[in-house]
Amino acid sequence: MDLARYVVDAVVLEGRSYREVAQAHGVSKSWVGKLVGRFREGGYGAIGPRSRAARRIPHRTADALEDEICALRKELTELGVDGGAATIGYHLGVRHEHVPSISTIWRVLRRRGFVTPQPHKRPRSSWIRFQAQLPNECWQSDVTHWRLADGTEVEIVNFIDDHSRVAVASRVLTVATAPKVLEVFREAGARWGFPAALLTDNGCVYTTWHRGGPNVMQTELLAAGIDYRHSRPYHPQTCGKVERFHQTMKAFLVNRPAACSIAALQAQIDRFLGYYNDVRPHQSIGRKTPRTTFEARDKARPSGPKIRVGAGVRVRRDRIDKGGKLTLRHGTRLHHIGVGHAHKGKRVTMLVNGLDVRVISLDGELLRHLQLDPTRDYQPLGS
Q: Which of 236, 237, 302, 365 has the least CB density, counted as fewest CB within 10 Å?
């Protein structure tokens, strides 16, 4: 017999007082009174333990709204696009005046079995992010791979704006070559405006400085005054935005029927670009669409031509000596160019256009730009 029944029997059957029973069993007088009252209303069955859960949750999300949240989750997932709580909240905001918080939507998804908590996952707040301040301040570009229905591998070159995340170009190519990538870049620039800088990896479609001189892409960038930057080898995080764009695009494509041709795949990608740029809210830019963010501010522009195309740019590879100098022959005279002791031992590429000399490290950093003085053997820093 449990304590509750002992207490009730002591009062009801034995006629003992509440105080006496409470002292005898080490409980409060009020608890004894509650048990006796519940017994008189419902018998012994009413004195058992009761749930402490609220009988009514006043702020519980309505079942109809929960169903709508789940339907949106399924719809977005089937489309192969982001179906997280923030995106669902954005779409609910289009339909309704009052929208539950993102945390509420997340709890609904968890309760309905759509998500599993990951307490050990690194929080986004701990990430260190870089973002250009203006549209067209910097574009990122990379090439990724995909297969057609018959197994043929094709390549997709993507350009995105670092500030707004607008996908300014996404083109399917049989093989990505420097001239073809340059063509895509020119078309994107004609439509969106050319960027002040371009950030890529070290793929040969973008850079060949480490192989003896600039390719057509680099020459075009220099001629337009576009600052060319590339990531450190084996460090794809530098181009993280375009890498993430690859993932988002492929999540969309994998939920489509396999394309039978390059034209069919391009049509699928064009459809994705329309959704990505104009419909899908982007979490990293305040839940706005990329196009809205791109059009909200003035655009950065290239700084101006850095070399004259067709002037016969000479390329020379060398290593900076222990004194921080390079040698360069102009005409019949050998000149020594000061670069600085901090760079001694570095392998560099020199771009020589008449008397205009640029010294560039293999990772793309401009170490020195000077006008060669043909009357002096040594060209000191600051000259």
A: 237
